[in-house]
């Protein structure tokens, strides 16, 4: 058992009267790309040019209040099978029609109707959260307090992309620390992991919290990869995230026996059952919880509670969320069992974000206190948006 107790059961909320559901797509210019083992620049390359992310939002207009949620699916299916255009299609053709046919205005009751669609957790999560956001705004409740957050601020971690040159990594780390991050999570890939992390460790000192995320790029079938993982084991990482392929649970369990660095899983943790299996196998010693990847914020609370029961450390991971998606993640990061720093890089990701990104004070970010997620897109930022109503 963990040292903290799980939050109390979720309180039912009064259903709202949903009048319209829209899919809103808005292009945002990225000023700080995050390269990973799947998408990173070639060896020796410098940081890629800024690019644009088509941000997909679900907008629920209810008689009592509006609700907003960001779908975190990325443009390409390189992190997860979901991608923005696919999420748009599955929401339009399958998920929203099921919501209209079911208890449209009650997120807690909606789940079983949405679950008849297999997969697509990020699309599902966005629809459920938009309804929940409208309900919470109507009830003047914050998502964080409804989920059971204690109100304590959350330690801010930063994610550092895969850099071509060691100096670029060190500069990125320095900038993140200067901006107030207290934990650095570094994207790594075979041949570019141990040397870089050892250099970073030397640069930031022994006390700095460092994690590495390989996004499944290593394989135990290559002796050179195993050798590099052993060298990475000497860096003093708080955890090594997803060294092997997403479905290689046995490989992760074997690696956990070899390395002293705790193994954290990310990509395969798509449900409570998947997390329990991975933990039971010894493949997962630390959980990266992404609410959208487990199908929503209600499921994330269940995952949180179970991780507390199992005594598994947990932290809330982020993707390329705007300020709208960040605020929702922050509500889960504020739960009492989410004890490790969350992905809350204080540095701007977008040229003009949809909502403000909170600034840490002494390394800590306060929870949103406004109703719902506490963040909605600035209407001025939606002038270029493509709006697709999905009628009942
Ligand atoms: Mg990851």
Overall spatial form: globular
Mean pLDDT: 94
Kindly state the percentage of residues in helix.
25-40%
How many structural domains are formed by the residues?
2
Give me the CATH architecture of the largest domain, please.
Alpha-Beta Barrel
Beta strand count: 13
Distinct compounds present = magnesium ion
CATH-defined superfamily of the largest domain: Enolase-like C-terminal domain
Structure annotation, total helices = 11
Q: Helix and strand string, N-terminal first?
A: EEEHHHHEHEHEHEHEHEHEHEEE
Distance between the termini: 46 Å
Given as residue ranges, the uncertain stretches (5+ residues, pLDDT < 50) are 41-49
Strand content: 15-25%
CA radius of gyration: 20 Å
CATH class (first level) name of the largest domain: Alpha Beta
- Category by helix and strand content: alpha/beta
Examine the coordinates and then state which fold CATH places here, giving the name of the CATH topology of the largest domain.
TIM Barrel
Largest sheet: 9 strands, mixed
Quickly list its features.
11 helices, 392 residues, 13 strands, Enolase-like, domain 1, alpha/beta, binds magnesium ion
Task: Walk me through what this model shows.
It is a single chain. The chain folds into 2 domains: 18-141 and 379-389, Enolase-like, N-terminal domain (Enolase-like, domain 1, 2-Layer Sandwich), CATH 3.30.390; 145-365, Alpha-Beta Barrel (TIM Barrel). It is 33% helix and 17% strand. It contains 11 helices and 13 strands. The strands form 2 sheets. Strands 4, 5, 6, 7, 8, 9, 10, 11 and 12 form a 9-stranded mixed beta sheet that branches. Helix 6 (194-204) links the parallel strand 5 (183-187) and strand 6. It starts with 17 loop residues before the first strand and ends with a strand. It binds magnesium ion. Magnesium ion binds at residues 213, 215, 241-242, 266, 288.
């Amino acid at each position: 058992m963990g040292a903290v107790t799980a939050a109390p059961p979720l309180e039912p909320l009064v259903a709202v009267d949903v009048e319209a559901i829209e899919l809103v797509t808005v292009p945002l210019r990225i000023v700080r790309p995050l390269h990973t083992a799947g998408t990173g620049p070639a060896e020796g390359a410098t940081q890629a040019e800024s690019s644009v992310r088509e941000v997909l939002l679900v907008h629920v207009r209810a008689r009592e209040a509006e609700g907003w949620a960001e779908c975190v699916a990325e443009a390409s299916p390189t992190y997860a099978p979901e991608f923005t255009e696919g999420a748009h299609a599955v929401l339009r053709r399958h998920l929203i029609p099921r919501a209209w046919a079911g208890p449209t205005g009650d997120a807690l009751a909606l789940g079983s109707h949405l679950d008849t669609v297999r997969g697509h957790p990020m699309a599902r999560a966005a629809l459920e959260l938009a309804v929940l956001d409208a309900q919470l705004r109507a009830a003047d409740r914050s998502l964080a307090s409804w989920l059971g957050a204690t109100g304590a601020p959350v330690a801010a971690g930063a994610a550092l992309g895969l850099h071509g040159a060691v100096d670029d990594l060190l500069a990125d780390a320095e900038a993140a620390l200067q901006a107030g991050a207290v934990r650095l999570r570094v994207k790594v890939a075979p041949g570019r992991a141990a040397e870089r992390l050892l250099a970073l460790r030397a640069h930031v000192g022994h006390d700095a919290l460092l994690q590495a995320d390989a996004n499944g790029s290593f394989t135990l079938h290559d002796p050179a990869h195993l050798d590099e993982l052993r060298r990475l084991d000497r860096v003093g990482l708080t955890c090594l995230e997803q060294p092997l392929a997403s479905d290689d649970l046995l490989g992760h369990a074997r690696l956990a026996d070899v390395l002293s660095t705790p193994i954290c899983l990310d990509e395969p943790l798509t449900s409570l059952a998947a997390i329990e299996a991975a933990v039971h196998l010894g493949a997962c010693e630390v959980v990266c919880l992404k609410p959208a990847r487990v199908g929503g914020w209600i499921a994330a609370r269940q995952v949180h509670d179970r991780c507390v029961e199992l005594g598994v450390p947990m932290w809330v991971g982020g993707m390329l969320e705007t300020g709208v998606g960040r605020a929702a993640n922050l509500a889960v990061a504020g739960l009492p069992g989410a004890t490790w720093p969350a992905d809350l890089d204080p540095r701007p990701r977008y040229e003009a974000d949809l909502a403000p990104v909170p600034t840490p004070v002494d390394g800590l970010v306060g929870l949103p206190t406004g109703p719902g997620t506490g963040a909605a897109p600035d209407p001025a930022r939606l002038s270029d948006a493509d709006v697709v109503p999905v009628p009942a």
